[in-house]
Design a protein that fits this description.
Length: 222
């Protein structure tokens, strides 16, 4: 990813930060089967970070998802059997996304490592270690250590004045939709696999002390 991301929302440039730590975490998480994707960004010092800036972070996240998808496609079509395989596309109707702010207790709960209910609301660690078929870290690598490092990179470990917006509040998995008419329509087809069963995540995290804006997402099925 380029170090500078040109805004589509009329703001100044966002800079990618924590690049080396993020790349190492991505490697460990991908090898283990974790399904979370994330970016860590930094606005210009003079910029005020509001909900619009959080949305800008989601624009950058979408660009990263598309970059990864296109890289996968490029590798696939090198095999002549798949040379006509269509290019991937991830819809991203961000204007339909609704931001739900988390309170201090909810933000704190995101970092708990004693939650094992994968379907519990805001059970981030449970989802981290329980993708389909469970995460499998290499010998000598502790899942909890990787998770704590990830939370630190995301800016979640310092609770003072942190703002976290949940962009998938009201989305329900297949286990939860029976006789339920309150489900929120997903604003991206990226969420469809997770809504079949496993679940979905999409958060943005603003840490004013570090001046970092992080965005994470996850959606998968078996």
């Amino acid at each position: 990813m380029n170090n500078l991301i040109e805004s589509r929302w009329g703001f100044d440039l966002l800079k990618v930060v924590e690049k080396e730590r993020s790349e190492e975490l991505i490697r460990l998480m991908d090898e283990a089967g974790c399904v979370f994707k994330f970016v860590v960004l930094s606005p210009d010092p003079q910029d005020k970070v509001d909900e619009s800036y959080h949305r800008q972070g989601l624009v950058v996240l979408h660009e990263e998802l598309m970059r990864s998808a296109m890289q996968w496609h490029e590798n696939l079509i090198n095999d002549k059997k798949y040379e006509n395989y269509p290019e991937p596309f991830i819809s991203w109707e961000l204007e339909n996304a609704i931001a739900t702010p988390l309170n201090v207790d909810e933000i704190r709960s995101l970092t708990f490592t004693d939650r094992t209910d994968i379907f519990g609301r805001l059970a981030l660690y449970a989802s981290f270690i329980n993708p389909p078929y469970r995460a499998r870290f290499k010998k000598g690598v502790e899942a909890e250590d990787v998770f704590n490092e990830w939370c630190d990179v995301l800016g979640l470990n310092e609770l003072d004045e942190i703002s976290v917006l949940n962009w998938v509040e009201g989305f329900h998995t297949g286990l939860h939709v029976e006789n339920d008419t309150s489900s929120v329509e997903p604003w991206s087809d990226y969420f469809y696999p997770g809504l079949e069963w496993w679940g979905v995540w999409c958060l943005t995290i603003w840490n004013p002390k570090r001046r970092t804006l992080s965005a994470l997402i996850a959606s998968t099925t078996d």
